[in-house]
Amino acid sequence: MKIEQAYTIVCAPGRNFVTLKIVTEDGVYGIGDATLNGREMAVVAYLEEHVLPALIGRDASCIEDIWQYLYRGAYWRRGPVTMAAIGAVDVALWDIKAKVANMPLYQLLGGRSRERVMTYAHCTGKDIDGCLQEVERHVAQGYRAVRVQAGIPGIPTIYGVAKREGERYEPADSELPAEHVWSTEKYLNHVPQLFAAVREQFGHDLHLLHDVHHRLTPIEAARLGKAVEPYHLFWLEDCVPAENQESLRLIREHTTTPLAIGEVFNSIHDYREMIQNQWIDYIRTPLSHGGGITHMRRVADFAALYHIRTGFHGPTDLSPVCLGAAIHFDSWVPNFGIQEYMPHDDLTLQVFSHDFRFEDGHFIVGEAPGHGVDIDESLAAQYPWKRASLPVNRLEDGTLWHW
Ligand SMILES: O=C(O)[C@H](O)[C@@H](O)[C@H](O)[C@H](O)CO
Ligand SMILES: [Mg+2]
User: Fold this and answer.
1) I want to staple 322 with a disulfide (CB 3.0 to 4.6 A). Which of 33, 116, 298, 400 is the partner?
2) Mean pLDDT over residues 364-370, rounded?
3) Taking every annotated instance into account, which residue ranges of this chain make up the domain Mandelate racemase/muconate lactonizing enzyme C-terminal (predicted)?
4) Please, where in the chain does CATH 3.30.390.10 lie?
């Protein structure tokens, strides 16, 4: 089953996506998501210039060998661009293998461990009342878990909060990076009030999540974790930038609020110390950025030894291809926790057809052979790539800050 053709498809139906298509000599094809938000063309160049020419003629069924070839063989290991490129190849090859076996992907992984996959929705508001209305709307739709984020008095723009109520926020919202302002003190004083209000109105059954977007120092994160303990969060996400894994130890020693981390990680080594020391509770790396199914299966198995569960990243800047493959993984993985779900717009869903279903706050995996997501290439061609950037974040005095 030789690989005959491999190429990238870059399109922007509403926002940018990079898709990798691999076609075998028998005409079977698989697709993978290679989107790295705000750095899309770096992955395209990595694939087109360095990876795809070396794939032609290789046996598409040797997924493990191709993974090792691209990881060890590159000499320059790890990093988001490399791992996103490997992830796209890996998911496309799993798609091919499952199609050839005439099975939905989850069957190849070991079969289903659950009937449905719990998701969490994003509920955002300009203020606490706006956020409460969004929680109400999502609970009425059947969600059992919601991520809550609200505007903070005195801070003009907050990342992760939609510009208009009832809409999604767009992470890469301008051609060049917009500049946001940040005040840790204003944020830390406000967040516990948001959770108090949500618990008061909705009680304690609903799972509540919150994303800090890496903006605190370890001791500030510990303070926040303690402050929200009475509201029993499902998780507090990315509370610090974690190049220094030891940061999580300090936070862990101060609070019982569960911690999720890793949407910007791409390798098992980024997590190694925090997993084996049990400093975290959930891993966030999406399949597409973490070297695909082959690598993320290893991360999930390693995490399972320490009671750590999956909570894959699922924003709109990962394409439906990544989401579709994740739903197969989520349906199989024994230590599943939750799946993030930020719905794509209608145009994106026209470009990417899919067979997973969404019902009552849960995904139900499809039965089509492969991962069940496809791309309409001629429709995609009508929406060319546009430069789009994530914002940067500055303190009130102008200092560039983590974001
Ligand atoms: O969904 C999340 O938890 C996020 O933090 C996203 O909003 C990311 O910031 C975005 O995916 C970056 O491209
Ligand atoms: Mg996040």
Assistant:
1) 33
2) 98
3) 128-258
4) 3-104
The pLDDT score that the predictor gives to residue 109 is: 98
Residue showing tokens 């940040």: 182
Q: Which residues contact 107 (CB under 8 A, 6 or more apart)?
A: 98, 101
User: What confidence tier does 325 reach under pLDDT thresholds 50, 70, 90?
Assistant: very high
* Residue 330, ligand 1, Cβ within 6 A: no
Atom of ligand 1 nearest to the CA of 160: 7
Q: Which fold has domain 3-104?
A: Enolase-like; domain 1 (3.30.390)
40 lines ligand 1 (CB under 6 A): no
Burial (Cβ within 10 Å: 0-12, 13-18, ≥19) of residue 4: middle
pLDDT for the residue 163: 84
**CATH architecture label of 108-367:** Alpha-Beta Barrel (3.20)
Q: CATH 3.20.20.120 occupies which residues in the chain?
A: 108-367
pLDDT tens digit sequence for 247-296: 999 999 999 999 999 999 999 999 999 999 999 999 999 999 999 999 99
Nearest ligand 1 atom to alpha carbon 340: 1
Q: Are 342 and 311 in contact (CB under 8 A)?
A: no
Query: How sure is the predictor about 363, in pLDDT bands with cuts at 50, 70 and 90?
Result: very high
Distance 37 CA to ligand 2 centre (A): 13
d(Cα 234, Cα 282) in Å, to the nearest integer? Answer: 10
The residues assigned a catalytic role are: 159, 213
Q: How far is the CA of 216 from the centre of ligand 2 (A)?
A: 14
As a whole number of angstroms, the distance between CA 194 and CA 186 comes to 13
Report d(CA 25, CA 268) in Å as an integer. Answer: 34
| Model confidence, pTM | 0.97
